[in-house]
Amino acid sequence: MKWKTLVYAMSLALLFVGCQSDDDGITTQNPNIEGDWNLVEVSGGLLGTEDTFDTGLILWNFADRKLEVTNRNTDPEAIDLYETGMYNFGFDMTSIPLTLTIGDATYTIDTFTDNELTLDDRVADGYFIRLIR
To answer: Which domain holds residue 47?
Structure first.
């Protein structure tokens, strides 16, 4: 009888010890969104676009709840999302999934580290967006 109780207790302990978060992209070191980010990839949408951009071509600067976009892209066919200008943004690290709202658009945060930020709105036929520092 003690053997069955011991096996049950060990199984229960392994169940709790073995459960860990699988959010590999989200860092636990609380990276800071403020500062300069380079838009380097936009893909998805209804037409399945895949556009890549050189570092420095499209700059996003997050500061004081404002996003300043400097867009030097001259390719009218490329999906670059935002024209040069200022946009309000909201960054919510407490929601699940984590979200970033720019103007009226809300994106799920897929990856957020000190050097990479990926946003995903493909569920709503939107875009996958990759920014790097």
So the answer is: 33-132
Task: Kindly state whether residue 28 falls inside one of the protein's structural domains.
Answer: no
The model's confidence at residue 29, banded by pLDDT at 50, 70 and 90, is: low
Residue 65 falls inside a structural domain:
yes
Complete DSSP assignment for 74-88: --TTS-----SEEEE
Number of domains in the chain: 1
Distance of CA 109 to the CA centre of its chain: 3
Rg (CA), the chain: 20
E strand map for the chain: 35-44, 49-52, 58-63, 66-71, 85-92, 99-102, 105-112, 116-120, 127-132
At 53-111, the pLDDT tens digits run: 999 999 999 999 999 999 999 999 999 999 999 999 997 778 788 899 999 999 999 99
Residue 117 maps to which CATH number?
2.40.128.280
- Confirm whether 81 is domain-assigned: yes
On whether residue 99 sits in a domain, the answer given is yes
pTM of the predicted protein model:
0.75
Distance CA 78, CA 63 (A): 26
